[in-house]
Each structure stands twice: as C-alpha cells, then as structure tokens.
C-alpha cells in the first residue's frame, strides 16, 4: 500500500453532497486507516469546508489525472462527480485503467415522476430554454451556474435563476433575477419561494438526490409544470453504485483486502 504505515490513500472526485458525505462517514468509520483527498473543479467561489485533504482545479485531461494518481501514490479512486458532469467520469475511468487503480462511480439515481407531476422531458438545457415561454410566464430555473447563460436571451417571461453564488450567472435585469442559496432545501421553504415569486414553471435538470428534491414536491403540491432536462450520456461502464452507503461498503471491502494482504 502506498500511504505511510499502510494507510489507504483515496482520491474522491467531488463537487457533490455525496462526495462530502462519503468522506465524512469514511473518516468517522476508518479514521487513520484512510487518507482521503477530495478534488474539486473550482467552480464554486467559496466551497463549504470538507474534512480530509482538498485539492482544487482540473488535472489536464485523463493523462494529467493518471499522472497525479501515480505521483501521489493513490490507492483508490471514487468518482462522485455530478450526474451531469460530462467529462470527468470518462477521464476517471481512463486514468484509473491506465494507472491500475480500483475505481468506483458513485452516481445517485435520477428522480422519477409520480402521481400529480406535470413533467416535460427535454434533452438539453438549451432545449428547455427555447421552449420555456410556451410553458410559463414566471420561471424558477435551477440548472446550475454553468448553463444559466442560456436563459439570458429569453423574452416574454420573468426568470429567477437560483444558484449557489453569482459567478458565471448572466447579469440581473428587470426580467432576470438571481436567487443565491445553497441546498439542502425543504418543502416548506420551497413552497414559500414559489408563492413569494408567483412561480408558474420550474426548470431543472434530473440531478436526483434528496437535497434538492423538495422543489419538485413543491411544484407537485401547487400543480405547476416542470421542464425536466434528462441526463446527458449513458453511464460510464464499470463498477457503479447509487448511494453513499454502497460506496462505503465498497471501501470497507478494499480495506479488508488490504488487511488480509498485510497479514499474508
Ligand atoms: P465536467 O464537464 O465533467 O468537467 C470539466 C472539466 O473540469 C474536467 O475535464 C476537469 O478538468 C475539471 N473537473 C471536473 N470535475 C473535477 C473535479 N472533481 N476535480 C478536478 N477537476 C475537475 O464537469 P462539469 O459539469 O464542468 O462540473 C464541474 C464540477 O462541478 C464537477 O466536480 C461536478 O461534480 C460539479 N457539479 C456539476 C454540476 C453539473 O450540473 N454539471 C452540478 C453540481 C456540481 P481537466 O480535464 O483539466 O482535469
């Protein structure tokens, strides 16, 4: 094993609540047996504090990531990037294969419509922006800062862009406003938000997960439609789990294997 005294060094490709929860629980359970390094792309201006080590910024493609994994003598790679991250899961798969490091994809399950939901499925954020004025006049848009610029050119509708911070958002004007907030959000607060801004349409990506599902429950409760952007690509092949608990089981097995190796 690479870390000092047989400590298992794990790189977690983060930017998600799952990555955070994985590191927090893994450290609580395994303490000094692991050395987790969370990697962030650096999109959020002031990311919330994380336990363990943190590095920020791209690697320079799959070869850069493979080089980093070797240079840091990394033992395991957990790719917990967002379900809408288009490149990193592929880079992670390639780099792990090249470096001979076990990799796990942690990707939460998508949301599914229930009784009372009025979802319109769309292939891209761009498509959602194009058809927005056909579905509502006052839209709450929660697609992340990176793709929010697509809503800057819409005419004939009042747009509320919700994001963690204003970095990358198109500038505010009378018919385009920012709502800066970091999840998780609860149902009561989401209902209040819809009422406060008299929202008649929700635009979102099918990110899945509990932290931001309340907006969909609120939309269902007040009967407004949802423009739901589908996930971009089929999942990367290879080991994949949908929950933090399953990822922690995978880690526990790797630690058990390590203990057996050390004893033999
Ligand atoms: P992406 O298209 O897969 O990534 C673009 C580039 O950003 C990658 O090629 C990589 O640069 C760098 N990168 C991405 N994730 C990284 C990480 N965890 N650590 C270091 N570098 C990283 O992903 P994206 O959609 O731009 O998202 C960027 C980050 O925001 C991801 O970490 C993701 O988990 C998080 N996020 C994304 C969304 C979303 O809707 N897309 C939502 C919430 C959070 P190099 O090629 O130079 O290594």
From TrEMBL:
MF terms per GO, please?
A: precorrin-6A reductase activity
One GO biological process from the UniProt record? cobalamin biosynthetic process
Q: What is its EC number?
A: 1.3.1.106
A Pfam family it matches = CbiJ
InterPro entries, sorted: Precorrin-6x_reduct
Keywords (A to Z) from UniProt: Cobalamin biosynthesis, Oxidoreductase
Q: In which pathway does it act?
A: Cofactor biosynthesis; adenosylcobalamin biosynthesis
Give the matching PANTHER family.
Answer: COBALT-PRECORRIN-6A REDUCTASE
What is the name attached to this protein's record?
Cobalt-precorrin-6A reductase
- This protein's species is Marivibrio halodurans
